[in-house]
UniProtKB/TrEMBL annotation:
Domain annotation LRAT: ranges: 53-180
GO molecular function terms listed in the Swiss-Prot or TrEMBL record: phosphatidylcholine-retinol O-acyltransferase activity
List of catalytic residues: C164 (acyl-thioester intermediate)
Enzymatic reactions: 1,2-dioctanoyl-sn-glycero-3-phosphocholine + all-trans-retinol--[retinol-binding protein] = 2-octanoyl-sn-glycero-3-phosphocholine + all-trans-retinyl octanoate + apo--[retinol-binding protein]; all-trans-retinol--[retinol-binding protein] + a 1,2-diacyl-sn-glycero-3-phosphocholine = apo--[retinol-binding protein] + an all-trans-retinyl ester + a 2-acyl-sn-glycero-3-phosphocholine; all-trans-retinol--[retinol-binding protein] + 1,2-dihexadecanoyl-sn-glycero-3-phosphocholine = apo--[retinol-binding protein] + all-trans-retinyl hexadecanoate + 2-hexadecanoyl-sn-glycero-3-phosphocholine; 1,2-didodecanoyl-sn-glycero-3-phosphocholine + all-trans-retinol--[retinol-binding protein] = 2-dodecanoyl-sn-glycero-3-phosphocholine + all-trans-retinyl dodecanoate + apo--[retinol-binding protein]
Name listed for the protein in its UniProt record: Lecithin retinol acyltransferase
Record EC number: 2.3.1.135
Presence of the UniProt keyword Repeat in the record: no
Length: 233
C-alpha cells in the first residue's frame, strides 16, 4: 500500500530487523493443539460498532483489525496458505504459528474475517484508540467497514509497507501508515548514528596514537571515549 524511496538494501535490512523484534508469533497453542482460544461470548461486543478500529496490544507489537459487526473482525495476517490453495475452508481456519512465520518470510498474507475471540486471542482490546492521532481524518464507520470488506482476500505482505496497521489506517482514515514501524525505523537510525559516533571517535583516537605515539594522553581517550559512547547508545 505504501511506497518509500529507501534504498533497496536498507529496506531489506530493516525488514530483517523487524522480523526479529517486531513480529511475535501467536500465543502458544494457537491452532497447534494447545490451549484453545476463548469461547464465543468471552468479549462484550455490545460496545463495538461497525467500522470501529480494534487494537490488541502484544508484548512486542500491536495487532489491528476493523470490526464488521456480528462478532466479526477483518484483519491482515501473514499467511503462507493462500499461496498454495484457494480452498476457503482451509484458509479460514485459525492461522497457526507456522503459517504466520512462513507468511512473513515469503511476504504473503490474507485479509481475513475472524471472530473477535480468534482475533484478540485473550488479549485486551482498545477501541478507536488511534482516532486522537488523526482528528478530522476519521472516515464514516460504514465507509471504514466497506473498505475492509472490499479488501478481504489474499494480499502481499511487507513488515515495512503493508502490515495490519497499514490496512486499518487505510480503512478508517484513508491513509495507510504504520506508527509502530516508523518508531522502530527511527530507533534503528538512532542506533546507527550512535555506532557511527563510536567508530568516528575510535578512528580519531587511533590517528592520534599513530601521529603522537603511545602515551596516557592519547591511549586512554582512545579507549574510554568510544566505550562510554557505546554504553550510552
Amino acid at each position: 500500500i505504501m511506497k518509500n524511496p529507501v534504498p533497496q538494501a536498507a529496506s531489506l535490512l530493516l525488514e530483517k530487523l523487524l522480523l526479529l523484534v517486531h513480529v511475535r508469533p501467536l500465543p502458544e497453542g494457537s491452532g497447534s493443539g494447545g490451549e484453545p482460544p476463548p469461547a464465543p461470548g468471552y468479549y462484550d461486543t455490545s460496545c463495538f460498532k461497525r467500522g470501529d478500529l480494534l487494537e490488541v496490544p502484544r508484548t512486542l507489537f500491536i495487532h489491528f483489525g476493523i470490526y464488521l459487526g456480528e462478532n466479526r473482525v477483518a484483519h491482515l495476517m501473514p499467511d503462507i496458505l493462500p499461496a498454495f490453495t484457494g480452498d476457503r475452508r482451509q484458509i479460514e481456519q485459525v492461522v497457526t504459528n507456522k503459517r504466520l512465520i512462513l507468511g512473513v518470510i515469503t511476504k504473503t498474507a490474507s485479509i481475513r474475517v475472524d471472530t473477535v475471540e480468534d482475533f484478540a486471542y485473550g488479549g485486551s482490546i482498545l477501541v478507536n484508540h488511534m482516532d486522537r492521532l488523526f482528528q478530522d481524518q476519521v472516515l464514516g464507520s460504514e465507509e471504514a467497514a466497506r473498505r475492509a470488506e472490499k479488501l478481504v482476500g489474499a494480499t502481499a505482505y511487507s513488515l515495512l509497507w503493508n502490515n495490519c496497521e497499514h490496512f486499518v489506517t487505510y480503512c478508517r482514515y484513508g491513509a495507510p501508515v504504520s506508527f509502530q514501524t516508523d518508531k522502530f525505523c527511527e530507533t534503528v537510525k538512532m542506533i546507527i548514528r550512535d555506532q557511527r559516533s563510536v567508530l568516528a571517535s575510535a578512528l580519531v583516537g587511533l590517528a592520534s596514537i599513530v601521529c603522537l605515539g603511545l602515551a596516557p594522553s592519547t591511549t586512554l581517550p582512545t579507549i574510554l571515549i568510544p566505550f562510554f559512547l557505546w554504553m550510552a547508545g
